[in-house]
Amino acid sequence: MIQDKLKNYHLILASGSPRRQQFFKDLGLDFEIRLKPIDEVYPNQLHHSEVSDYLAQLKSEPFKNELKDKDILVTSDTIVWHNNIALGKPKDYDDAFQMLFSMSNSSHEVITSITFTTKISQKTVNAVTKVTFNALTTNEIDYYVKTFKPYDKAGAYGIQEWIGQIGIASIEGSYTNVVGLPTHLLYKTLNSMVL
What we know:
Blueprint: H1 2-5, E1 10-13, H2 18-26, E2 32-33, H3 49-58, E3 71-82, E4 85-87, H4 93-103, E5 107-117, E6 122-133, H5 138-148, H6 162-167, E7 168-172, H7 175-179, H8 183-193
Parallel strand pairs: 1-2, 1-3
Antiparallel strand pairs: 3-4, 3-5, 5-6, 6-7
Helix pairs in contact: 4-5
């Protein structure tokens, strides 16, 4: 099992997301949480998964000089890709409302990139999940944003919350990716790194 393979390594999760931290616990991984602030800005010409790849790699930069031989640093970023625009975390109520209103009765893609950084190498993988929303009423959007305050979530929603239960018609791909971490890719990549 992967826990045995990793016992000689030190796994560091650089994420304040309670959802990502819970996935690590659910997988039975021993890990340390280490956080450093970063300005999540990316070049305008980046497209689709290039955005989340870039941001996941950017999040690893402040840690690079302090990694030891057996450290594996995991950084991650999730975006919602809709109408050729990357939707990140909403700034305020109006921003969240507009994001959800724009995605109502249409499909978008949730893209999560994971970067694995060691003292000598770096690898980035990503997953893409297609999510289709039913038509949402303005009352439903208003209720969700005011009640759940999804300001820490890309695209202004959490699939595991009320909006996911009433508003999502279908998903194609990884569910955990939409929550914030494609756990199958995390597991597969860690397995390949610690042969």
